[in-house]
């Protein structure tokens, strides 16, 4: 029994693999390096391993780690072992305290491993010569594995995770560019190398091994961010309890008029804030369809991130099936999802003009420009700051698992680069290491907001001719600049493509996807339609039926063409530079044009059943929670994926089920953050930045941000709050 078990463990040491998320981050910033160093003891390691291999406890170490990965021909180089079982191993034997430590190591497959032993430590065990080619990976599977690995690398970059590059060492060996990661459970007194040397007596040239990481219980040190987060949210919880108790006593038990209650004392009340969240008051001139558009766009964002994060941060049982799905025509509803961000840019520009034009003069805009910017910043700040703080602290502590590296990487980035996100410069300062990676949208939107007064001044202060000239010039300038830039550099037309790489092409994420210049045109398209809606405010825009039908036909055809264009560019034989340049330069503006026409048609009675669907009251809650949902859904998806203890089987049905769970979690998180942060902050900001002199201030309204349901408040009585949006006291 002793001989057989030991022979098995050595074979499994060679062949058992475990893939993990290769991320480039400072582990000492999120895991305690001292806890690993203090437990190492080579003598105790040798003593414990000799005891383990001759006793039944060996079975526990084997059961906790060593497995041959299932479904290798489907691209699965992953087996997560039994993380919690390994860390739960504890046995006292005499003066030995044996505890498990979970480790990962990377082994390139392209090496012949000769375990011909010269040691007499275990002379009775035969050591065969082992060649990894017996894994029988054929050429097609090998090619698919490489493309799947490249897909995962690109998706990790797109999600803000920077993977390490793996280069082919030996072009003649088809396995030299594929590495496997081995999960092993070893005594905590051992380093991985000591354990291998003790068990296998390896020489330095025997086996190329790179330690990925090891994990021990309670290896996440408490840092300042953890204490700050706990302190802040405990204080907020106390304020919420007191405010809600005051509110219930005033309205329910004493049955007093809510208007007589202290407004600041009610600011943290869950009861009042929830009522405000679900109460709708019709407002003349409101663009009712915006809630539905915002809600559908948010659903598309979340389902897209659900699928993408399965490929980039989750451990899949059949990654090649996922790759084949991505290449298929039927995946367009997922692979085209990035275009939905341009919906938000268009909404942002549209609302900026529609809520500003006619409400102030150019002189007032210039006079209150500092408040114009400050109000915008303060309304975005609380929820964003809460998301950053939680990512830097408590999200790292809520759970754990063998695939926790993606969460740890995001935590490290927020601890280092939180300030770039709060300053909205993360898309330029450190785009490959963004804290809250999807917040690049907020950075670009805020940067466009900063330059918007250059256009707004002429829109609100000039004639229609000057307004049109300014708006059209801004759009043409952005399109021209983006076109010259795209045609000069020659990016591929998508964040993830399978065709041949272009030599010398800059990083797509850094230089195109999060670049303000390339993403600006939809914003200016939205501004033009915002002005059209403004000059037709309060009156019926008469459009002949033939033109209405033509515009709807063009909108459907053009938006469908934008979506369908993702199919050919994903194919492995796609390499058409000119088409890529055209798509990169104009497809986002075309999409924004289609969305804005839909808004215009719905607002003036030409939407038909589409307007009925988009204007339904059921979308209003999602519209009001959309900002918090946008910020929090992505970190929570990564946390959920980090909990995985076994590879997940990829299928459309399973992914949709996972999306439903992610969507519900996002709604619940958005509601909680609204009650804890957004609603109280809105009341306080309104109180301290509202009009002076006892004037009755208007209720805050929906923002100028395409996805933000937070309010743009009246500033010192000079910048009037627009009246076109539905009043939302909760998120304002």
TrEMBL record:
Keyword terms: Membrane, Signal, Transmembrane, Transmembrane helix
Organism, as annotated: Galleria mellonella
Entry superkingdom: Eukaryota
InterPro entries recorded: Acyl_transf_3_dom (IPR002656), Nose-resist-to-fluoxetine_N (IPR006621), O2_lipid_transport_reg (IPR052728)
Domain spans labelled Nose resistant-to-fluoxetine protein N-terminal: 42-216
Segments traversing the membrane: 227-246, 295-312, 332-356, 377-395, 440-460, 467-491, 511-534, 546-570, 590-615, 627-650, 656-677
Signal peptide segment: 1-19
SMART domains in the record: NRF (SM00703)
The protein, known as: O-acyltransferase like protein-like
Pfam family, one: NRF
